[in-house]
């Protein structure tokens, strides 16, 4: 190899550099053998005339240094470096020496670095070539970490100060970036007396004489402001904030009356630089929120946030979409102030922006709907009025594009919506759309994502009629569809059903429709079904599902006897062996299946809970309707009785309470059920929704109705949260039943209102 490398071309040199590194990483030889046989070949090729080859060998050497013992590094690398770093050597040799010195700083003790490495570092910092000074300046960060804070203050900082005033713009840029990266190593005095004046100087010159540093300054501004936060005076704090605002708007102000060709050329040259500056400002926006304090966001930074979210450049809006979640977290209870920008980015014309935003969409929506301290369950959707149209528009735009991965990602994230919006809104705006995607889309990952999200929507749907309608459509349009492709998607959907629902739910609605596909005319459908049969069998419980087990065994026998396709028959035989080895769970808990049975029990409890809540909701609506009818009758009677004499009116006054109290006695059971429904739903909620404000005391039946409907609404919203499924039904046993006296008080107060509120003190009812 060594003989060939003398005359080898560029490609062979590059391959040899990579191969030598691979030999080291895979430990093909001992480190002693490697340093004896390979190291000197690497060192010989460092100064190859081709820059690409030289850099490849340098990368190999820097990786080798990590594994070599100190003595070998000192004799083979450090000692020869003294001569190669001299001014008499070539430019390439001195550049290589800078990078090697930066790597060696972490390999030796501080006193060795001070004695043998720092003199070379100082010499290279004063080199006549600006490329060498720039390269050495960028290695000062590694050297400072090797020598510690004390030597950094006395040796490295003076060099950085001098390099920051260098005549070469690239040297000044390197010095500025190194200063920012070393801020943590400087004490408060160094920051206030040395670093801060330099930073102010950079900021002042960036717009006038030194625009080369503008992009780097905008990128590091967030780190710089927070690093120097403790030493800023109020005036300096305001000055840096104004500087950030100026950078955020750079290039957006139109020049008035300047249309010369020279100015147009200058604008074209600066356009990319200004876009990069605004992009960096978008990147630093979360850091600037910390700088000004989230409480002052609306006053100090909201206008900049608005402009960056509406920036004409896609890259700027993309960066804002990427950092949107961080901004929402920092604002916490003030997150409601940026809901319009969320809608704007969801409706952005660029799918790249949408893709960046969707990554944390569930967390953002959760913060938006629940982040505010005063945002209760009832105000979930009110805080983002345009959310649903924005979400549907985003999905439709992704669907019509060729970027199916973005569409798939969007559908997966939309699975969070049951925790954000109501069941009816999901049913009418999203659920049928998912079914349409499964039936019409041509991309398999997109169809599977839509199927899983649809199953999640079905799980949290609160109306049995709607659930039955969706199940019927899945069976008819997918399971019994004309296209074999739809029938394959039905089997995929059944897998998600088994994952998300209880075993009893699957057996009740989907077990037999799945088995019907054993007679499918297409071999691929029968083959996929065979792969699914073990999972299907695992949903059975003995003795409850004994008849279903018999149906399964019958279908398998038919497949074994009647199947003509060789591939399907092979899979059937393999599946039969697997089914024979399976153990079916029984109704009672078993130690082997304890965790699975417990999880299935929670799913089943959740499904029963939805049914019971729907029934209680219906009872509540019926009671409200009846109480409304009673009020209407009483009003009509009052209108008729007002025409009689005062004596007759007085006798009627005595007769009405008797009749209403009799009515209340007849309706007391219904009221008790309603109160039980409220108390049951309250106890079954997630803890964060359980602290529902107590209803204010009212003296009229109307107040009672409105408070009940308010509690019903909060209960409905609270049940969109997934975490309530961990609460058992047993915890809701302690229900608050209203006494007969409270029932009488309720209707007596209504009568008093009917009679012109003759009694001065209204009776109060507690719920």
From TrEMBL:
One term under GO cellular component: protein serine/threonine phosphatase complex
Record organism: Pelecanoides urinatrix (Common diving petrel)
Domain of life: Eukaryota
Coiled-coil intervals, chain numbering: none
Protein name: Serine/threonine-protein phosphatase 4 regulatory subunit 4
Location of the protein in the cell: Cytoplasm
Gene3D superfamilies: Leucine-rich Repeat Variant (1.25.10.10)
Keyword Signal (UniProt): no
Residue stretches of each HEAT repeat: 117-154, 156-194
The organism's taxonomic lineage, starting at the top: Eukaryota, Metazoa, Chordata, Craniata, Vertebrata
Classification via SUPFAM superfamilies: ARM repeat
Function text: Putative regulatory subunit of serine/threonine-protein phosphatase 4.
Sequence ranges of Basic and acidic residues compositional bias: 633-643
Chain intervals for the UniProt region annotation (Disordered): 617-682, 688-707, 726-767
PROSITE patterns according to UniProt: HEAT_REPEAT (PS50077)
Chief place of localization: cytoplasm
Entry keywords, A to Z: Coiled coil, Cytoplasm, Phosphoprotein, Repeat
Listed Low complexity bias regions: 730-749
Compositionally biased intervals (Polar residues): 644-664, 697-707, 750-767
Subunit structure: Serine/threonine-protein phosphatase 4 (PP4) occurs in different assemblies of the catalytic and one or more regulatory subunits. Component of the PP4 complex PPP4C-PPP4R4.
Annotated GO MF terms: protein phosphatase regulator activity
